[in-house]
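Researcher: We plan to redesign the surface later, but first we want a full-length starting point. Tokens attached.
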């Protein structure tokens, strides 16, 4: 048995169309202001060694009335949430480069190569969370001022 699909099409008349477009434009502009405030606040908290992490903070996605800001740098999560103590062992490639030796970890200042290192872990540095909290204080005022200006409220 075939199903019948029923749909209706609705279009705003010429008088309402521009007003609705203006509201949609205002919403996107407000999201831009929120995004910029969040990025600026996150950057104030972002640790900097090379600048790679800071330069990667950007808008990742936008869905409806939400904007998602973040980074795709793999080590960002280790900075944000910290790490537990863990063992570092050489990769197969590093072992191969060392002639197949198990003792393939070495760094400047070490007495001799080692096969593994116990890393004590790192404390969390929640730069994204701190930035979000800082931005929450300024976003309402900035968006309200923008909407007053654009919509003449």
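Model: Full-length starting sequence:
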């Amino acid at each position: 048995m075939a199903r019948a699909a029923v749909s209706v099409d609705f279009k705003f008349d010429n008088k309402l169309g521009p007003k609705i477009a203006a509201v949609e434009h205002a919403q996107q502009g407000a999201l831009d202001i929120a995004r910029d405030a969040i990025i600026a606040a996150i950057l104030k908290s972002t640790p900097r060694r090379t600048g790679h992490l800071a330069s990667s903070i950007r808008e990742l996605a936008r869905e409806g009335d939400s904007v998602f800001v973040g980074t795709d740098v793999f080590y960002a999560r280790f900075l944000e949430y910290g790490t537990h103590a863990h063992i570092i062992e050489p990769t197969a490639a590093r072992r191969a480069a060392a002639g197949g030796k198990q003792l393939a970890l070495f760094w400047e200042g070490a007495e001799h190569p080692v096969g593994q290192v116990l890393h004590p872990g790192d404390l969390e540095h929640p730069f994204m969370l701190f930035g979000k909290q800082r931005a929450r204080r300024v976003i309402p005022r900035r968006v309200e001022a923008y909407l007053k200006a654009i919509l003449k409220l």
